[in-house]
Amino acid sequence: MKDLFQLARHSVAGLLTLLLFTAVLGLGYPLAVTGIAAVSMPWRANGSLVTAEGDHTTNPSDAVGSQIIGQAADGTLFLPRPSAAGEGWDPLSSYGSNLGPDNEDLVATIKQRKAEIAQREGVDPADVPADAVTASASGLDPDISPAYAALQVPRVARANGLSEKRVRGLVADHIDGRTLGVLGEPRVNVLMLNVAVRDAARLG
To answer: Of 78, 107, 114, whose CA–CA distance to 194 is shortest?
Structure first.
């Protein structure tokens, strides 16, 4: 009887501990972090949304995209990296292809992408950079390399009635360096660059 009493007491204590930590860590902590983020950095907390003018907004109806999530673009603008996420750049289905570098399907896909990009941009396949033909781990990378951006300059310039010099200047203005000076590689945010291209084309 004594053993049953101790077992019941320990079980109740364990259950209460579980409920307490569920409330604190499963509800309290996430709500506190969300609340602090919403007050201290509302733009970032609401998805880093950007308007057609390149301004920050927290209203989804005013946004043309998110600065931190890749998205499709038409052939008149700079194109992002390939995506394996859902139907492409789907934030609710974020993942990579999970195929190894020696996988025959991946090798064939990269070869096909390289040929298509080379034809579209009018360059030799050997000049197509790696990030142009490979998806990121999340499939949602919003950035491309300066080399891939430079490759697309002639096409984007022709499509928007701008000089290549002007578009190259826009690319240069949108190159972000390594994080903290040491992490990652220089990169170009595709959405912000495309906003600038549209703005330049509108102003003439």
So the answer is: 78
**Residue 174: per-residue pLDDT:** 96
- Cα(132)–Cα(145) distance, rounded to whole angstroms? 8
Longest distance between any two alpha carbons in the chain, whole Å: 89
Cβ-Cβ contacts under 8 Å for 162 (sequence gap 6 or more): 156, 197, 200, 201
pTM: 0.80
The reported pLDDT for the residue numbered 199 is 94
Q: Which residues of the chain, if any, have pLDDT below 70?
A: 1-5, 86-88, 96
CA distance 143 to 136: 10
| Paired sense of beta strands 175-176 and 187-189, if any | antiparallel
> Cβ atoms within 10 A of the Cβ of 19, count?
11
Tell me how crowded residue 82 is: count the other CB atoms within 10 A of its CB.
21
